[in-house]
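Many introductory courses stop at the sequence. We go one step further.
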Amino acid sequence: MINKIKIRILILLISTIIICSYLFISSIISNNKFQNLKLLLNDEKKQLIKKNIFPHKFISQQQQIISNQQQKISKQQQIISKLQQSLGSINLYDLELIKKEDGSEIQTEMNIKKLSDNKTLKIYNLTSGFYSGINNIFPGSGYIDFYESNIIVLSSRGILVFKKNIEDIEENFKQIKNNINEFIGKNQFKKHQWFSLKDILIFNNKVFVSYTEEIKKDCWNTSVIYGDMNYKDIKFKKLFSPKECVHSTNNIDKEFNAHQSGGKIISFDNNHILLSVGDYRSRHLAQNINSLNGKIIKININNGNYEIISMGHRNPQGLYFDKENNFILETEHGPQGGDEINFIEINKINKDKIQNYGWAISSAGEHYGGRNEKNKKKYKKYPLYKSHIEHGFIKPLKSFEASIGISEIVKVNQNRYVVGSMRNKSLYFFQLNEQQEIINLNRVHVFERVRDLRLNENQLYLFMEDTASIGVIDLNLK
């Protein structure tokens, strides 16, 4: 009898512990009162707990996300259908070029989304004009910068717009006339959606735009045009155009992908900008010192002269020059996994040898399809060793073994930074400690592909390309 009582007490005690633990962990996961305790769990651990201990919550959240995405897709399909009915069978890039030609204003619709970590995302959807995307067929992709307190937005097909106060819904975005499509236009866009504009930078009253240039017929590389910044009519001309190009079919590895074009532009000093150039999937070029592909280059804005400052990159799409601390942070897409955040030391530029980051010899990722028989020759030529240091390369600050679709990187405060994600549709905030190591990496879901980022007056601006929207997050920086 005594043993039975002890067993019942033990069962009751265990049950009480389980129930209390359940309620406690549930509070940590979903209640903002436990925000400090939540910081002890990274995003993967939270998702693991939700999936295995609280599956009903996890399923409910995923169903809501799926429902929201389905509603977006349905709305987009309705817009496409109406446009095609009114204009006949027409390509979306044609439709965007028509919108650019008529010069009409672009309206916005605003809604608000609550994010984790008590962040609020204000979303300003560009309801017209941005029709043709780089990754998504519809809607359009774009890039953000600021000039004289105006937000400037460039579409991937050449629409250039500005607005004084994004929060004023009654005020529309106004178009700036330009001649961008003299350099890349309908002839290129119809070949593939990945042929596009890549970035915008406004610097020293000049506006710089990078793009995939058809150097020769079906042979491509990444170039830069520039013009005097104004709000009426910008006349662009070439600043930088490589002599070499990667042919879309006639190349060594018989592979080509213009998504791997890089194209990020940032200012460096009063006379120079930095440009990232991808390998266009000609992997061997990244380790070829005589090629500009797979490199970060410094370009003189007065005469177009250039020099290579780093190499061994695959598809670098994010650059940030931390002038206060005198280093560059670079982000790049890996293949099947292996997205990277890299640290480029300014003091080592041209001091010894070009800083080399290892692609396509070392990478945390794998070739598409993995280590199968079909890829045997590819791995022999491009082994993708898991160590950078052992093979004489600079180790990334961070390698994402599973691809997040990493995009732009900006500094938000002191030693705190944020990178965008297209594949994971998130922002990743992190800090650098005194040893230049990434700490306190925290993922914040925004549930759309983040193509570009800008910080302006303590607010983080995102170009979100699943709905062709500008997102704004007040960071409350101190």
